């Protein structure tokens, strides 16, 4: 009788951590250039095909086989939820999708959704990150924590679970999605989304993102608004003759930063990207300001979208009142409503929110995993595409912390001890699911 059959959990002896081969695989993945063209602007090699092949070779030694390996088709970029920057990049850059494939690995035969666990890992990264190295206890390099390190930790956990549970790959199926298009603002529209639409999902779906080994059942979505001023330039000798986009956008940036956050009840407001020009002796009549708004539910997203319109309208009116009598800014004040325009670069994506009793019983009670603290905000990841998919439960679960491990910053790292712990936790998660499935079969 195995540990799984006796207790539903792996023993510490059964749940091994990373092997020497795992460490070599991670260093190889870190060395491959998998930064997507949305991050680099194009023109640089993208080695996602190579990275996915390397991972598939390692997974093949555990019994996984490739059931899908291809980029998304052009139809993936035609929906209303496709960010404008993604659609434009695909239009401007030949081969944009071709260099960003997705892979699906399967263990065992195709089984019903109710008997399947799916793991999602993205191998694309943001740019930068510093040199790749391993100190003996810590991996450095872009993707070490987000999310190549978790991807390798997942394999180590699967190895331990397979040693304990003969049901895995026979009575319980396992899928691994290896996706592109998670970073760079792509929001998974040509990675995770098409794979979900093709049915590569399970009863339990685990997105391997850093959560400090805590089970998170929420994922925010985000929308990006662009505030533009399209006015008339002026010269420094007659600054009142033109429309001063710098002063107008600067005023509106402060107004939005003060007035909009109370509407983001389950998300965040980020006011950023203010640009008019770089010279000191010119009045710039054009410019733009970007506002990124995250939200935890579709209802909040709709309300936040409407609130931005109202808050902006109020801000423009206050600017007009504040500067109406100013010789330097009276023209800008008078025409502020006419020259100020709002458009959306990204909006109306789904958000994941689940208070799932089945997940709590399976992962917290039976597997003994820790919950994400209720008072902490969620973050945005590709798990949003599982929102509302029938017969599924979805969690975000991974090692490390996005901030503490310097994801998206120079010096990104992952500690070997954290990846080893993640492997053990993955073993507990899988064996708990398998035990639950066996109990249902009885």
From TrEMBL:
<dbReference type="InterPro" id="IPR050072">
    <property type="entry name" value="Peptidase_M20A"/>
</dbReference>
<dbReference type="Pfam" id="PF01546">
    <property type="entry name" value="Peptidase_M20"/>
</dbReference>
<dbReference type="InterPro" id="IPR002933">
    <property type="entry name" value="Peptidase_M20"/>
</dbReference>
<protein>
    <submittedName>
        <fullName>M20/M25/M40 family metallo-hydrolase</fullName>
    </submittedName>
</protein>
